[in-house]
Design goal:
The chain has 21 helices and no strands. The protein has about 475 residues and is mainly α.
């Protein structure tokens, strides 16, 4: 209400010609300082401290608005001078908040400064980013002294938001976004070393890379991939060396950056699947379930991309000529899909995330492995024997390989329920493929070979399995 009254008074003074531009600015500065002084005077008495906070906050807001008027409205001060006035006001407000032990006042001062600064600079310029970063750094001693961790959030939001908007509007360079993200990451890690697992600091660490990743989106392809990849390397490298949940947050943010870099640079899903395999091994030997989750995310996205781009369903069912380069890419993607399914399942079992007695979670991994194995065999056959002959040979080998895999699963599944069920399902899949696909699509020796090979393996599997069950 007081601020609104000041604005109405100034409007009335302008309309009636009582005050010129310079007197208005001077009156605003005097009035803001007077309000802050009155708040300091009232704060001496405990009963009047609520009013003291209100007066001080109103006075600081008045000084911010007065700096805007002197800079943007009347141009009495250059932009840098206006920012200097805002900085002095912010530092004074922070000192007052420390003296009064008021985290709310400190946060309010920083937020108000962040809101007013873009008006002073008349846009999201490099000068604005420099000013906001100075304010963010200036709050560090206060946070370390008073442990006002909420202040880290309110001081980080303005520069990060301004950097994102500046990137979208193309009003700042990539270097500004990199500096903004680096400062936020560094400050949050420093303070997390002092206070582990603080939610506000973890939130700042999680969103700090966003300006850099957003800047990478507007760059050319190779530069964008290199920038996102550099962010991924830095954040993942800090994972083992940072205590508590901060390392996990940094590592997950690094995985997101790695995903962006991979999708930007590579068109197919092979590289994503390769990264999924590497993450699965890393999760197994570091016993890190978050790395396992990253492996799952990379495997799912890479597998979907591979099915759409590399190892398409049409490749598996339509006998047509294929380019050698396409087949090699499909072969690599299929092999990595099979490897990712096996590595991810193995790591999940070793980390006790996936129980052998739980059947349903095994289904997605089994289907992915089945699809990858089919693509691997067919692509290898087409590369060895191009044309329809290679297609027929490949499907005959797929059917036989499924039955062989079923035999192995059944033999290993005497004591493990999940393997036994997977083996029986694989037997059913092989029989269904024989009847529904091979009988119609294959001809000649390919059809004979598929049926004879699968039949003999199934006979062997049945007799051997019956003997082992009886002996148990």
């Amino acid at each position: 209400m007081t601020l609104l009254g000041v604005v109405l008074l100034l409007v009335l003074a302008v309309q009636r010609g009582w005050l010129g531009p310079l007197p208005r600015v001077l009156v605003g500065a005097v009035f803001g300082a007077a309000l802050v002084g009155a708040g300091a005077w009232l704060h001496r008495k405990p009963a009047a401290r609520t009013g003291a906070f209100a007066l001080a906050a109103t006075g600081i807001a008045t000084l911010y608005l007065d700096a805007i008027a002197a800079t943007s409205l009347y141009e009495f001060l250059p932009i840098l001078a206006g920012l200097a006035v805002g900085l002095v006001t912010a530092v004074g407000g922070l000192l007052l908040a420390v003296m009064w032990n008021s985290p709310l006042l400190a946060s309010s001062v920083v937020v108000a400064c962040g809101v007013c600064a873009p008006v002073i600079t008349q846009g999201f310029t490099p000068e604005l980013m420099t000013f906001l970063l100075i304010i963010q750094i200036a709050t560090v001693p206060v946070q370390l002294r008073r442990s006002w961790w909420s202040l880290s959030l309110t001081s980080a939001i303005p520069p990060l938001t301004a950097s994102l908007i500046g990137t979208v509007l193309h009003t700042q360079s990539t270097a500004v976004a990199i500096v903004t993200g680096a400062v936020s990451v560094a400050l949050s890690l420093i303070m997390l070393h002092r206070k582990e697992n603080e939610p506000t600091l973890l939130a700042v660490l999680a969103v700090a890379p966003l300006p850099v990743l957003a800047a990478a989106v507007v760059l050319p392809k190779t530069q964008a991939a290199l920038l996102a990849g550099a962010v991924a390397v830095v954040l993942v490298a800090t994972w083992p060396f940072v205590r508590g949940q901060a390392g996990t947050v940094a590592g997950v943010a690094g995985l997101v950056a790695a995903l962006q870099a991979t999708v930007t640079e590579f068109d197919g899903g092979a590289v994503l699947l390769g990264e999924a395999v590497a993450l699965a091994f890393a999760a197994r030997y570091t016993k890190n379930r978050f790395a396992l989750g990253g492996s799952l995310a990379f495997a799912v996205i890479g597998g979907l991309v591979a099915i759409v781009v590399d190892v398409t369903p049409a490749l598996l069912v339509v006998p047509r000529l294929h380019l050698t380069a396409d087949l090699r890419a499909a072969l690599a993607a299929a092999a990595l899909m099979l490897g990712a399914a096996i590595a991810l399942t193995w790591a999940a079992v070793r980390l006790e995330v996936l129980k052998p007695s739980k059947l349903l979670p095994w289904l997605p991994g089994g289907l992915a492995a089945l699809y990858g194995a089919a693509g691997l065999v067919l692509c290898a056959a087409l590369l060895a024997v191009p044309g329809r002959s290679g297609f027929l040979l490949g499907h005959a080998l797929i059917t036989v390989s499924w039955t062989v895999a079923a035999l192995i699963m059944l033999l290993r599944g005497i004591a493990v329920v999940a393997l036994r069920v997977v083996g029986l399902v694989l037997v059913a899949a092989a029989v269904a493929k024989l009847v529904l696909f091979d009988l119609a699509a294959l001809d000649g020796l390919a059809r004979v070979g598929a049926f004879l090979g699968a039949g003999l393996v199934l006979l062997l599997a049945g007799s051997r399995y019956a003997r082992m069950v009886a002996s148990r």
